[in-house]
Every structure is written in structure tokens, then in C-alpha cells.
Write a structure and sequence with these properties.
This protein is an alpha/beta fold and 329 residues long. It has 2 domains: 7-175, P-loop containing nucleotide triphosphate hydrolases (Rossmann fold); 188-307, Histidine kinase-like ATPase, C-terminal domain (Heat Shock Protein 90), CATH 3.30.565.10. It has 11 helices and 12 strands. It has helices spanning 16-32, 43-52, 55-58, 66-69, 76-87, 109-122, 141-150, 169-175, 197-210, 215-235, 279-287, and strands at residues 7-13, 37-41, 61-65, 93-97, 128-135, 153-156, 159-162, 188-192, 240-247, 250-257, 290-296, 299-307. The strands form 2 sheets. A 7-stranded mixed beta sheet has the order 3-2-4-5-1-6-7, sandwiched between helices. The two termini are 36 Å apart.
Length: 329
């Protein structure tokens, strides 16, 4: 394997024993080569790997419950993968993750595929190997087919082989730029205008509190909608509408305007230091449980969910951290 090239692999595993055996080989091989290792998989897999790894190895691995820290698929690149790579500039990194797991919210799935496709674009030419785990028994055939479309390499018990289904990453992401369902009839619909920003924030906060969200999450919802509204005013001529609805423990907001996000990476990248733009969508990805975007010339719709669960961390845990995050699944 050329150490200067990016390698994006899909591990198609059958059963937990197969996952653990493959994961242990992947981790220990990376540690033996002196590569920093990040493991971002569901809590069950994390617990097993912590038990099976020798203490000296576990102490060198960054471990994150992805069902918590990455429950918003759009957060995985800017909050997990890119910060980890940024900490290790000049060194080849190794990542084992599982962005699609059985039971993952179907509404989030298109964003998962877009994430997996665009990882190829974002990490092209970087010194990294990212292996994405897929439960071949628990996921349906379309999800496994998408894994083959978004990963140049497939890892199976029979060995590693090139994926003959791998497709252009930007084209694959565009194929999952899908229209969003309209808000329910019970939703509150408000115009987005400069003189109503304060009123919009107030309405979002009231709806979040009514849904049972704790104060910190009320603040997150307010920040997210405020950032989206500001983007509407700045980039779409100031014409937009906001729909707000809720269920116990969940606030949903959907903003539609006349703008267009031409860059498929606009919502996936870390903002450049000192950049005057690009921070709004980054902030929205950080604080929301789900961000779905549908954009075509002349129209963009962004749907966000904020739940009563604690917000994910703003920084990766240190190597060897064995604490279970509050709110983890």
C-alpha cells in the first residue's frame, strides 16, 4: 500500500465476531506502523474492542460512539474525520468507523450516502486509510450496494478487492440530493425577513421548550435556525419561509428559500481560519441531530432536527478515554 495515497475501504462483515476479528487486525496493524488510530463505531463494538485490545494498545486509540457523536451524518467529516487528520498533519492516519448501522433513521440515510461519497473527494491525496464497517446481515441490499458505490475497496473474509461498482463521488452524492417531504399541516410557517429574526428565534425557542428540550438544546435549536435564516438573507435575496413543528423530545424546522448550494462540499468542510463565510452551515451541522439539504438552482430546502439528547462533543476524546459519554446509545 502506497503510504502517500488515500485508501477508502468498506468492511462487509457477517456477525460481531467477524467484525471484532477484522477490527483488531486493522487497529493493531496501524499501531505497529506508528499510525494514529480513530475508532468511531456503535457502543457495543467499542465495548468489545476495549475488552479485547491489550491495555497498552487501547491507551493509544481514540474511541468515539458514532451513534452519539455522528448521529447527524453531516457532522462526521467536519467534527470527527477532518479534526483528527488536522491533529496529525504529515502522518498517515487510520480510521475505523460505521456511519451506517442497522436501525439508522431512514430520513438520515441519503445524507449518509452523500457523506460516504464525498469522503473520497475531501481526502483525495491525503495520507489516510478509512475503513467503514457495514453489517452485511443487518443492512438491506440497497445499503450494501451503496457501500460498494462509495468505496473503491471492499474488505470481506475472502480478502480485499477493488469494487467494480465504485462510481464518481460527486455524481453519487448528487443522486442522493433528494426532495424533502413537505412539513405537516400542523406546522407553524413563518416568513424569513431581516426585521423578524428576533421573532423567529423566539418562536423556535418556545416550540423547543414545548417539545421538552432542555435549556442547552433549546439554545442549539435557536442557533441553528438563526444561522440558516441569516444565510437566506445574505445569499438568496432575503426571500424564505420557515416551518416549525415538534413531537415529544424533538423539534423539527425546515427552511426554504431561493438560493442554491452549488458546491456539494459546502456543508461538509471545516471553515478556514479567519474565513468570513462558511461558518453558518458548519455551526448548524455541529448542533443538530439531523441536517438534510435539497438544493437545485433557484430553490434550497434545509431540514434540521434537534432532540432532547445531549449535544455531541465539540472535541475528540483523548487516546485511551474509557468514559461512556452522557446520552450515548
Amino acid at each position: 500500500m502506497n503510504a502517500d495515497r488515500f485508501r477508502h475501504e468498506a468492511l462487509l462483515y457477517h456477525g460481531q465476531d467477524e467484525f471484532v476479528a477484522s477490527a483488531l487486525r486493522f487497529i493493531t496493524d496501524g499501531l505497529a506502523k506508528g499510525e494514529p488510530v480513530l475508532v468511531a463505531v456503535p457502543a457495543t463494538g467499542l465495548a468489545t474492542l476495549r475488552r479485547e485490545l491489550p491495555d497498552r494498545d487501547a491507551a493509544r486509540v481514540r474511541m468515539v460512539d458514532i451513534t452519539w457523536a455522528g448521529r447527524n451524518p453531516g457532522r462526521i467529516l467536519p467534527a470527527l474525520l477532518l479534526p483528527f487528520a488536522g491533529e496529525e498533519t504529515g502522518r498517515r492516519i487510520r480510521v475505523l468507523d460505521e456511519p451506517v448501522w442497522p436501525g439508522r433513521d431512514a430520513l438520515a440515510y441519503p445524507a449518509c450516502v452523500q457523506h460516504e461519497a464525498l469522503v473520497n473527494t475531501v481526502f483525495a491525496g491525503r495520507p489516510a486509510v478509512i475503513r467503514c464497517s457495514y453489517d452485511a446481515d443487518g443492512l438491506d441490499r440497497p445499503a450494501l450496494a451503496d457501500a460498494e458505490r462509495t468505496h473503491p475497496w471492499l474488505v470481506t473474509p475472502a480478502g480485499t478487492r477493488a469494487s467494480n461498482r465504485f462510481a464518481d463521488p460527486v455524481g453519487t452524492a448528487a443522486a442522493y440530493n433528494l426532495p424533502l417531504s413537505p412539513p405537516p399541516g400542523s406546522a407553524t410557517v413563518l416568513a424569513v425577513t431581516l426585521d423578524r429574526l428576533g421573532f423567529l428565534r423566539q418562536q423556535v425557542a418556545e416550540a423547543a421548550r414545548s417539545a421538552g428540550l432542555p435549556p442547552g438544546r433549546v439554545g442549539d435549536a435557536t442557533i441553528a435556525v438563526n444561522e440558516l435564516a441569516i444565510n437566506t438573507l445574505q445569499y438568496s435575496g432575503g426571500l424564505g419561509s420557515l416551518a416549525i413543528w415538534s413531537a415529544p423530545g424533538l423539534l423539527a424546522c425546515q427552511l426554504t428559500d431561493g438560493g442554491y448550494l452549488a458546491d456539494p462540499l459546502a456543508a461538509s468542510m471545516l471553515p478556514a481560519p479567519g474565513a468570513a463565510s462558511g461558518r453558518g452551515l458548519y455551526a448548524v451541522q455541529q448542533v443538530c441531530d439531523l441536517v438534510r439539504i435539497y438544493t437545485v438552482p433557484g430553490r434550497t430546502t434545509i431540514r434540521v432536527h434537534v432532540s432532547s439528547q445531549p449535544a455531541p462533543p465539540v472535541a475528540l476524546p483523548p487516546p485511551g478515554d474509557r468514559s461512556r459519554p452522557r446520552g450515548a446509545v
